[in-house]
Amino acid sequence: MPNLESVVACHLGRVAYLPTWRLQESIKHRLIEAKKNGEFLSHVILSLEHPPVFTMGKSGDDRNLKATGNAQVVHINRGGDVTYHGPGQLVVYFLIDLDRFFRDLHQFMRHLEEIIIRTLNDCDLEGFRIPGRTGVWVGSKGNERKICAFGIHTSRWVTSHGLALNVSPDLNYFNQITPCGIMDRGVTSIAKELNQTFTLDEISKSVLSHFNEIFDANTLTLDPTESYQYLERLTKQVNLKESLHVESDENSSLSGLQH
């Protein structure tokens, strides 16, 4: 049996985009610092949802953002074009030191896609890749619909950002953009495809299980209270929950998994 990589999965609920991005940067710099100093730290996965926000990657084209409505617009350092985050969408950020897995960003992206394909299979939904287009899709040839978007940034082989899986978001927001710059394909969700509701907690649990399978990892899943305590210790920040502008549990469909 190989030695399994140690990962801590933190469930944050519904959190504002910009302070969560800053939290990612803090974790990433902490992992880089530890690597330089020969200190062992677990990888970190953040599982959450955001209020309505459009994010524009480094290769983004402002013409693909047609209207903003009540959503915030943020230009960020991940790859890719414009995408949407909002309630009912599971967002998973991966703060992973690829030096402890493999130095191959292409392979990392294909692994993330495989996690989502297996997660969709758990819901009796068939997901697939389209050659030359990052993401996971459902439907049939000529009528493919994107259900999960990906965008990754790396620094010294430590990753940040991750994936956004449409579980049950308001898909009307996608009409305000050309998602990821793709004009000839639609966007969908698990709820729309199956006419069935899954909680973000259920889907998150499936994602983490398949992450462990594919990456040979041992993931410790923390509930929200434990998550904030762990991240405060890791990043040496205080009042982290307040700084992320966490919305109350009754407004969030991602409350965090229990042991």
Which tags fit this structure?
single chain, 259 residues, three-stranded mixed β-sheet, BirA Bifunctional Protein, domain 2, 30% strand, 29% helix, 6 helices, alpha/beta
Describe what this molecule looks like in 3D.
The protein has 6 helices and 12 strands. Helix 2 crosses helix 4 (200-215). Helices cover 29% and strands 30% of the residues. A hairpin with a 2-residue loop joins strand 9 (143-155) and strand 10. The chain is α/β, with parallel strands linked by helices and 259 residues long. Strands 1, 2, 6, 7, 8, 9, 10, 11 and 12 form a 9-stranded mixed beta sheet that branches. A 3-stranded mixed beta sheet has the order 4-3-5, with no helix packed on it. The two termini are 25 Å apart.
Tell the overall outline.
globular
CATH C-level label:
Alpha Beta
Query: How does CATH name the architecture?
Result: 2-Layer Sandwich
* Largest sheet: number of strands, sense, barrel closure: 9 strands, mixed
- How much of the sequence lies in strands comes to 25-35%
Write the layout of secondary structure elements.
Layout: E1 5-14, H1 17-37, E2 43-49, E3 53-56, E4 72-75, E5 82-85, E6 89-95, H2 105-122, E7 128-130, E8 133-140, E9 143-155, E10 158-166, E11 186-187, H3 190-194, H4 200-215, E12 217-222, H5 224-235, H6 240-243
Parallel strand pairs: 1-2, 1-12, 3-4, 9-11
Antiparallel strand pairs: 2-6, 3-5, 6-10, 7-8, 8-9, 9-10
